[in-house]
């Protein structure tokens, strides 16, 4: 009989790595022992037990329906990573219990997310998400430390933007891109036109310079020819011409008598000479 009683009265429980526990003693007051039990095996009487907590980081997702500063409804998926403070496990258990997330962390997270999103415009949410995450994390940590929970991280996983606004923004971006494309095309056309004008001006200037050069050459040649003729005319005196005529031995000469005024005397060959 005593052996049977000893068998039923003596048992035990294990605390695994990543866990911590406190002992419940049914026949004691207070019932919970304030010593935190680390991983290991603990023998227990049958009427006692261990309350085991996972003290590694846990993660929960919450879909929070928020209203932005410009009164637009936006569903937001927020993830929070947390773990209980191992050293204060007795106080956490006796004040709140194992459902500390459902009772405190989760509701506080939803309230803080709604309050913070209400300060931001719909179109600014993507850009300001890191700021929102930091504010919610810091404030949630301030509240959670009162019941011995550590908030590791708060992350905004997804923002379900208002479709009407999103489409309007998409159209605005598309129009802006088309406008920029047109502006770019106009700039290219203006640049090409300027290049064409410059090339035409260059050709025109080249033609003008060539024409001016040719005209100047013609004028120069004409001036030189005139000066040469003038120089020759000055040297072609009657005496010089007579000299050159007599100087040529192969030339034939005809003498025509002249009368008054230098006019030649024409002799009528058909009449007998007197």
Strand content: 15-25%
User: Shape, please?
Assistant: rod-shaped
The CATH level-2 architecture of the largest domain is identified as 2-Layer Sandwich
The H-and-E topology, N to C, reads as HEEEEEEHHHEHH
Mean pLDDT: 83
Helix content: 40-55%
Structural category: alpha+beta
Find the count of extended strands (DSSP E, 2+ residues).
7
Largest sheet: 3 strands, antiparallel
CATH superfamily of the largest domain: Band 7 domain
Write a structural description:
The chain is α+β, with helices and mostly antiparallel strands and 274 residues long. It has 3 domains: 53 residues, no CATH class; 104 residues, Band 7 domain (Tetrahydropterin Synthase, Chain A, 2-Layer Sandwich), CATH 3.30.479.30; 36 residues. It is built from 6 helices and 7 strands. Helix 3 packs antiparallel against helix 4.
In short:
The protein is an alpha+beta fold and 274 residues long.
Set out the fold topology.
Elements: H1 2-9, E1 10-15, E2 19-24, E3 40-45, E4 49-54, E5 58-67, E6 73-84, H2 89-95, H3 100-117, H4 125-144, E7 149-159, H5 163-235, H6 238-247
Antiparallel strand pairs: 1-3, 2-4, 5-6, 6-7
Helix pairs in contact: 3-4
Give the tags.
274 residues; alpha+beta; Tetrahydropterin Synthase, Chain A; 3 domains; 21% strand
